[in-house]
Write a sequence for this structure.
C-alpha cells in the first residue's frame, strides 16, 4: 500500500519517492533475466509477491489486475477475479479469500513463473510503491533513515504520539504490571528529540522506574542535566581504565609504532581521513540530502548569499568533519546553551580555516542551525537541524569506533567504546575529578567495563594497558616476531600483506586474549582459539576499509592477512609461540592486577556496577560476535564453589577465583549498605611512601558509615622486584579527620585496622589480596 498504509508515517520515510529496498545483488533487469527473481503466490500471507531467492515482497493489491492482465491458466482466473474486487479498505478480507481459494493450486507458482517474462516482471515491479535496488547502492540511494548503516533497521518516528503509543504498548504494559522495574533506552541519540521523548516516557512509567540511556560522552561532555534519567549505561566508566597509564606513558609507544610504520603517524589526521570516508561514501545519501536542504533554505533567506551548491557542500562537509561530540540537542524550542557553545566553537575554528566564499556559506549554515531565520522558514530550519543531529552521531561512531579503531593500533586498549584514543597518558588526579563529577551528576548511572559493544573483554583490555609500561620491550618483541614469521608476509601489487602496522595489531590482539599456556597448548584448545582469533582479524581488516572491506570480502589482501595469522598457530610456529608466551608473562601478570583494580573501582566508585554476562569470571573475549558466545555455566558454578587463593594472582585461574569472590563480596556489601553507595560522598585519598605513584585510593562516606578502597596501578613496574605487596610495606594512607575517628575492618582479613596519627599503615594490608577494602559501620 506504500504511502497509503496506516503505518506509512510510523517510519522515517521520504514518500516523495518510492520506498527503496536494498536487497538486490545485481540490477533488477539482470536479476529477472537470471531467474533470481520471479512473480509468486505467498500462501502464508495470501498475497502475490515479488520473490527473490525465497524472500517474498508483497505486491500492492491495486496492481494485481495490471500485473496479471492477459494471463490464463490454472489458478490465474481465480486471482484475476479476486484482484478485480481488491480495494485498500478490504485488503484483509482479500488476503484471506486469496489464501482459501488458491492454497490448493499446487501448480500456481509454476504457472506464474512461466507466464511472466523478465521484461514483464520489471514492469510489474515498477507499479509498486517500493523499488528494489542493489545493496551496494544503499549508502547513496535510500529513501528512509536507517540505524547507522544497517539497512534493515528503519528509523521509527517516536516523536509522533500515535507511533509512541503503538511502539511502547508492550513495554508500558510490562512496567504497569510490575514485571519490569527498569528500562534501558538504546541509542538515545537516534531520536529526533531525546529530551521530549524521555519526558514523555518518564510521565508514563512514573518516578520510581529505573531509567538509563545508552549515550557515549566525549571527553568532558556531560549528560544533559534536564533529562529525567538515572544516568547512562556507563561507557564513560570504561574510559577511567586509562588510570592504568602514567601521564607520559604513550609518547615512547607512539615513537615505537611510528618507527615500525616507517612514517610519522598523526592519529588526528588518520581519524579525519576516516571521518571523510564516512561523509563521502558510507553516508553519501544522507549528506547529499542535507546539502539540498541547505541550498533550498539559503535561497529563501535574504541574509544568505546567492546559493552556491558546491560551496555549501564544502561548508557542510567541513562542519560534519569537525564535530567533537556525537550530537547536539536542538529542538523546536531552540538550542540549549551547551549546544550553542559547541556550535560556536566549531564555527570559530572553521572560520579561521576558510576563505571568503566558504566563510559566507558557513555563516549561512550557522544561521540555519541557530534558528536565525525568518518565521516562515523556521520550521524547515528545525527540520534541517534535526536531520544533521540524526547524522552526526552515526557518522562519528562509524568513523571512530568502526574505522579508526581498526586502522590505528598503537595501544588497542584505548581503541574502546567511550575511551579517548588520543590521550597522552592517564593520571590519578583526572580519575578523581571524573568520579567526583559522577557522584554529583549520576550517582545511580550504570558503571560498565564490558558490554556487548566493547571491542575486547575487560581482562584483555587490562592486560594490554601493561604494554605501555614497557614500550621498548614490546617493540623489540614485535620486531623479533616479525622476523620469525617473515615467510608469512605476501608481496601484493599494492604492498606487503600484512603491512608492519597490521602485524603489530595482530600480535597485540593475540596478546590480549592469549590463555593457552595454562592448559598445555592442547591441539583442541589451539584450534578453537585460532578460529576465534581469525574471525577477529577478518573483522579488523574489513572494518579498517583500507585494503579490504565488507563489500569486497575475501579479496587477496584479506586472504594473505588471514593466512599470516593462521600461520602463528601452525606446528612450524611452535618456537614463535614459546617466545611469545615467555615475553607475554610479565605483561599478563600485570594485567591480572589491572583487572582486579578496575573491577574494584566499578564496584565501589559512584554508580551501579553493570556486570556483563560471565565477566564476574574471566573475560578475555574478542570483539563481537566473540563476546556474545554462550556462557560457560560450568566454569562459573565451579568458581562459586571454590575458594580464592590468597595473595597476588599469578595465573588466569587465580584471577578468575579472586575476581569472582571480589564481585560476590562487594555486591553483598552494597546490599547491606545501599545508602552508602547510592548517596555516599566521594573523597579522593592519597597514599604516601615509595609506592605512592602506584596506588589509587578513595573513600565513600555516609554519616558514620564509610568505605575506603586502595588499589594498585602501573603494576608492571611495581612488580619488577617480585611480590607487589612488598612495595607498600612503608606506605601509609593519611585520612581526613572525619574518617580518622572511625573504626575500620579489612574485608579481606576480617581484622580491625588501626588508625594511628590520622593514618592507616599499608604494611600488611596487601598481603591477602592486591587491594584493600576497609569498612566502618556504626
Amino acid at each position: 500500500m506504500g504511502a497509503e498504509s496506516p503505518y506509512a508515517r510510523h517510519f522515517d520515510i521520504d514518500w516523495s519517492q518510492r520506498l527503496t529496498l536494498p536487497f538486490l545483488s545485481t540490477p533488477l533487469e539482470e536479476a529477472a533475466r537470471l531467474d533470481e527473481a520471479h512473480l509468486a503466490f505467498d500462501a502464508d500471507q495470501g498475497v502475490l509477491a515479488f520473490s527473490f531467492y525465497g524472500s517474498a515482497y508483497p505486491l500492492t493489491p491495486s496492481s494485481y489486475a495490471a500485473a496479471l492482465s492477459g494471463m490464463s491458466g490454472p489458478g490465474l482466473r481465480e486471482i484475476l477475479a479476486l484482484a478485480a474486487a481488491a480495494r485498500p479498505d478490504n485488503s484483509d478480507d482479500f488476503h484471506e479469500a486469496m489464501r482459501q481459494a488458491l492454497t490448493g493450486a499446487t501448480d500456481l507458482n509454476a504457472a506464474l513463473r512461466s507466464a511472466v517474462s523478465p521484461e514483464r516482471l520489471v514492469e510489474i515491479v515498477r507499479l509498486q510503491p517500493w523499488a528494489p535496488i542493489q545493496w551496494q547502492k544503499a549508502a547513496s540511494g535510500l529513501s528512509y533513515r536507517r540505524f547507522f548503516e544497517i539497512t534493515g533497521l528503519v528509523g521509527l518516528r517516536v516523536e509522533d504520539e500515535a507511533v509512541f503509543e503503538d511502539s511502547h504498548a508492550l513495554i508500558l504494559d510490562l512496567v504497569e504490571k510490575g514485571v519490569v522495574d527498569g528500562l534501558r533506552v538504546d541509542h538515545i541519540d537516534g531520536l529526533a528529540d531525546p529530551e521530549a521523548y524521555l519526558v514523555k516516557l518518564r510521565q508514563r512509567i512514573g518516578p520510581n522506574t529505573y531509567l538509563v540511556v545508552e549515550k557515549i560522552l566525549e571527553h568532558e561532555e556531560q549528560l544533559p542535566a534536564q533529562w529525567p534519567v538515572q544516568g547512562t549505561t556507563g561507557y564513560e566508566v570504561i574510559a577511567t581504565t586509562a588510570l592504568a597509564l602514567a601521564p607520559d606513558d604513550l609518547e615512547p609507544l607512539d615513537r615505537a609504532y611510528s618507527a615500525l610504520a616507517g612514517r610519522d603517524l598523526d592519529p588526528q589526521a588518520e581519524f579525519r581521513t576516516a571521518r571523510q570516508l564516512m561523509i563521502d561514501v558510507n553516508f553519501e545519501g544522507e549528506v547529499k540530502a542535507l546539502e539540498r536542504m541547505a541550498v533550498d533554505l539559503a535561497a529563501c533567506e535574504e541574509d544568505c548569499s546567492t546559493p552556491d551548491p558546491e560551496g555549501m557542500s564544502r561548508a557542510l562537509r567541513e562542519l560534519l568533519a569537525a564535530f567533537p561530540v556525537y550530537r547536539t540537542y536542538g529542538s523546536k524550542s531552540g538550542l540549549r546553551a551547551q549546544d550553542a557553545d559547541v556550535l560556536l566553537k566549531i564555527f570559530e575554528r572553521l572560520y579561521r580555516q576558510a576563505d571568503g566564499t566558504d566563510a559566507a556559506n558557513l555563516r549561512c549554515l550557522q544561521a540555519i542551525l541557530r534558528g536565525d531565520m525568518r518565521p516562515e522558514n523556521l520550521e524547515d530550519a528545525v527540520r534541517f537541524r534535526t536531520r544533521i543531529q540524526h547524522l552526526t552521531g552515526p557518522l562519528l561512531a562509524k568513523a571512530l569506533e568502526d574505522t579508526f579503531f581498526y586502522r590505528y593500533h598503537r595501544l588497542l586498549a584505548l581503541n574502546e567504546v567511550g575511551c579517548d584514543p588520543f590521550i597522552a597518558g592517564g593520571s590519578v588526579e583526572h580519575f578523581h575529578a571524573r568520579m567526583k563529577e559522577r557522584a554529583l551528576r549520576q550517582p545511580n548511572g550504570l558503571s560498565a567495563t564490558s558490554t556487548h559493544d566493547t571491542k575486547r573483554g575487560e581482562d584483555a583490555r587490562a592486560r594490554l594497558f601493561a604494554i605501555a609500561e614497557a614500550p621498548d620491550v614490546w617493540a623489540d618483541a614485535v620486531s623479533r616476531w616479525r622476523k620469525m614469521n617473515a615467510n608469512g608476509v605476501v608481496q601484493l601489487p599494492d604492498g606487503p600483506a600484512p603491512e608492519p602496522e597490521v602485524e603489530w595489531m595482530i600480535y597485540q590482539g593475540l596478546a590480549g586474549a592469549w590463555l593457552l599456556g595454562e592448559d598445555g597448548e592442547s591441539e583442541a584448545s589451539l584450534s578453537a582459539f585460532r578460529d576465534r582469533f581469525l574471525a577477529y582479524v577478518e573483522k579488523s581488516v574489513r572494518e579498517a576499509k583500507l585494503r579490504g572491506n565488507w563489500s569486497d570480502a575475501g579479496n587477496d589482501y584479506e586472504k594473505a592477512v588471514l593466512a599470516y595469522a593462521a600461520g602463528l598457530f601452525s606446528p612450524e610456529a611452535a618456537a614463535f609461540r614459546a617466545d611469545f608466551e615467555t615475553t607475554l608473562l610479565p605483561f599478563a601478570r600485570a594485567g591480572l592486577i589491572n583487572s582486579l583494580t578496575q573491577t574494584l573501582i566499578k564496584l565501589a566508585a559512584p554508580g551501579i556496577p553493570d556486570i556483563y554476562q560471565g565477566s564476574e569470571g574471566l573475560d578475555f573475549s574478542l570483539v563481537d560476535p566473540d563476546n556474545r558466545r554462550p556462557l560457560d555455566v560450568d566454569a562459573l558454578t565451579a568458581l562459586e564453589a571454590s575458594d580464592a587463593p590468597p595473595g597476588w594472582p599469578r595465573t588466569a585461574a587465580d584471577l578468575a577465583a579472586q575476581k569472582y569472590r571480589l564481585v560476590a563480596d562487594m555486591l553483598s556489601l552494597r546490599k547491606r549498605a545501599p545508602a552508602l553507595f547510592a548517596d555516599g560522598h566521594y573523597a579522593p585519598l592519597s597514599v604516601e611512601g615509595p609506592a605512592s605513584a602506584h596506588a589509587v585510593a578513595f573513600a565513600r562516606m555516609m554519616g558514620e558509615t564509610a568505605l575506603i578502597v586502595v588499589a594498585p596501578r602501573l603494576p608492571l613496574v611495581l612488580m619488577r622486584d617480585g611480590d607487589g605487596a612488598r612495595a607498600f610495606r612503608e606506605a601509609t594512607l593519611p585520612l581526613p579527620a572525619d574518617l580518622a575517628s572511625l573504626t575500620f575492618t579489612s574485608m579481606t582479613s576480617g581484622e580491625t585496622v588501626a588508625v594511628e596519627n590520622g593514618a592507616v599503615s599499608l604494611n600488611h594490608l596487601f598481603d591477602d589480596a592486591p587491594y584493600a577494602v576497609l569498612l566502618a559501620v556504626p
The mean pLDDT is 91. DSSP finds 29 helices and 22 strands in the chain. The first helix runs from residue 28 to 33.
